[in-house]
Specification:
Elements: E1 3-12, H1 19-29, E2 35-45, E3 48-58, H2 63-72, E4 77-87
Antiparallel strand pairs: 1-3, 1-4, 2-3
């Protein structure tokens, strides 16, 4: 079984949301077997910022969806979008 690299974009629920608080919640929220390769804050527009999370996970059925759902449950995260994915 291979590994999959996925780039998620997490959008906060408000412009004034503290993205550092979200950053601290990402690793504990992830399902077993999923590791974070990196995180980056990206400016969107008018003061709104997003958090890009690069993760590596096993190529197993359902793990991408469960990871996306886990990230969406983090407080003050309005939406989670898969930006890129590919096999390693």
């Amino acid at each position: 079984m291979g590994q999959v690299a996925v780039l998620f974009r997490l959008m906060p629920d408000a412009v004034e949301t503290d993205l550092e608080a979200i950053v601290k919640e990402v690793k504990p929220a992830l399902p077993a077997g999923v590791t974070v390769r990196g995180m980056q804050v990206k400016d969107i527009a008018y003061g709104l910022k997003s958090l890009l999370v690069s993760a590596v996970m096993p190529d197993a059925a359902g793990i991408l969806q469960s990871t996306e759902e886990a990230l969406a449950k983090i407080p003050h995260v309005e939406s989670v979008e898969v930006m890129e994915e590919g096999l390693l």
